[in-house]
Design a protein that fits this description.
With 247 residues, the chain is mainly alpha-helical. It is 77% helix and 3% strand.
Length: 247
């Protein structure tokens, strides 16, 4: 897939028609269809990274007699998910955008190479998003919701704009301006799915089963990645078209 290089900077080129983000229900339907059509690829990219790590962690927990229901286990697994998702998300977006752009999906290793390139930057920005949303939520629920919607496109900004986005959180804030409640209503169905999925994972008794269920949940969460990517394309694509018309 073509990657733009300008002054030593890289970004994924988005030079194809994108559907505007003007309806939350329509966006949910589109993201669901796109997720299902790319599920084999998304599952492969996710499991290649998650499965060996999750199995290894459960082996270590078993040797150290750490229960999966303990606070320590929960905290460590949350941090691990943050670290792994920072690699998988840009890889997943790279592959799906490549398919939308040219009709040919990049190979898994090629997508993971892009994910590895964006890993450190996305991890740092995901930490900043988590802290920002968490602190706002401690004040009141509404500021937390607003912050979540405002920063929802950060992952896609880093994955697609890469080096050209100097401030991904600020870029997400600009892109979601005037449409944050619409963004929130797209995110809303994913919240109970995530909570219910986490509850199901905890209900698995064996450590190997726990690791497999946790990986399955990570694959399911790529549905949200696709939704965020489509929202970004719908907003950024429209902004690009308006800029071109002004010229």
């Amino acid at each position: 897939m073509r990657v733009e290089r300008e002054s030593g900077r890289r970004r994924i080129e988005v030079d194809f028609a994108t559907e505007p983000f003007d309806s939350a229900p329509r966006m949910l339907l589109r993201s669901t269809g796109l997720y299902l059509s790319h599920l084999p690829f998304l599952a492969t990219v996710t499991l290649v990274v998650y499965l060996p790590v999750k199995l290894a962690v459960q082996l270590v927990f078993s040797l150290l007699n750490v229960s999966n229901e303990s606070v320590l286990s929960y905290a460590l697994l949350e941090v691990l998910d943050l670290v792994l998702s920072a690699l998988v998300i840009p890889a997943a977006i790279y592959g799906v955008v490549g398919k939308l752009r040219s009709g040919r999906r990049p190979r898994v290793w090629e997508s993971l190479r892009w994910g590895r390139r964006q890993w450190g930057r996305l991890l740092w920005n995901k930490v900043k998003v988590e802290i920002t949303v968490g602190l706002r939520a401690l004040l009141l629920i509404v500021p937390g919701i607003t912050a979540m919607a405002r920063l929802a496109l950060t992952d896609a900004v880093v994955a697609i704009e890469a080096d050209s986005a100097a401030e991904p959180l600020a870029r997400s804030s600009d892109l979601t301006h005037g449409r944050r409640w619409r963004v929130f209503f797209v995110l809303l169905p994913f919240l109970p799915v995530d909570l219910f999925g986490a509850w199901l994972v905890l209900a698995v008794p064996s450590r190997v089963g726990f690791a497999l269920a946790d990986c399955a949940l990570a694959v399911a969460e790529q549905w949200l990645t696709v939704a965020v990517m489509l929202m970004y394309l719908g907003v950024a694509g429209r902004s690009k078209e308006r800029a071109a018309k002004k010229r």
